[in-house]
Amino acid sequence: MIRLDLSPEPQWLGLGHGVKLKLLPLTTALMVATRSDQTVQDLDPEASNDERAAIFAGALARRAVVDWEGVGDVDSNVLPVSPEGIDALLSLWPIFEAFNLHYVSRGMLL
Fold first, then answer.
1. What pTM, to 2 d.p., does this model score?
2. Scanning 56, 61, 84, 101, which has its CA 20 to 30 A from the CA of 27?
């Protein structure tokens, strides 16, 4: 059975290590926009599946993340959400894995 949650409201997703992301719903429009992202389009045709997954997840996160908790700089100052911050956050393996598993893959499996 497919359970439809048509709420347009962003939802919080815990990624571990005290990090939570407030994410837009993973809709067809969001996925199509991500596929059209320049970083995705510029991928080398010979890129590995792992490289493709990392680039796609970053492009998707830059569109989907509207807020976060538990993300700060080296002096523990809370950082505002930014494309550069999202990329830096996803460069951390446990965070990338949790985001990919609980947000990206959930949409892909459906």
1. 0.88
2. 84
Query: Percent of the chain having pLDDT more than 70?
Result: 91
60-64's contacts with Cβ under 8 Å and 24+ in sequence apart are: 60/30, 60/31, 60/34, 60/103, 60/104, 61/21, 61/86, 61/89, 61/90, 61/99, 62/37, 62/86, 62/87, 63/24, 63/30, 63/33, 63/34, 63/37, 64/23, 64/24, 64/26, 64/30, 64/103
If phi > 0 it is left, if psi is from -120 to 50 it is alpha, else beta; for residue 24 that is: beta
* Longest distance between any two alpha carbons in the chain, whole Å: 47
